[in-house]
Amino acid sequence: MKVNVNWQEDVHFTAETGSGFKVEIDGSQQLGPRPMELILAGLGGCTSYDVVGILKKARQDVVSCVAHIDADRADTVPAVFTEIRVHFVVTGRGLKESHVARAVKLSAEEYCSASLMLERGGVNIVHSYEIIEVA
Questions:
Q1: Rg (Cα) of the chain, in Å, rounded?
Q2: DSSP helix/strand/coil, 28
Q3: CA nearest 48: which of 62, 61, 31, 32?
Q4: Which of 68, 115, 124, 134 would staple 83 via disulfide (CB 3.0–4.6 Å)?
Q5: pLDDT tens digits for 31-43?
């Protein structure tokens, strides 16, 4: 896996992934997200990928999965994350609570590389979920 990050000006950078995608990064939030926001987005994408995949393998009829993520940072430099809360809102038809709970747990404890890496680095990550039934 490879990413190149090129400085544009001031606190604006452009990242280009090995797969050819570009992301604008901006510390002032005028041209793109801040770097630490991208870490949370990466965590959200990683764990959501797991949860949806596990639920689909369990033949659950998922129509939507949204991960709401908020985090606390240290007050001193380096302002690392101290706690991250990931709350899934899983919407579907006839979803079994036990399957959703299992999917969230497996992602948190076994599959999500981003989550495991952050936790091993000392970040407390709390996972929760809710299920919304649709007709």
A1: 17
A2: coil
A3: 62
A4: 124
A5: 999 999 999 999 9
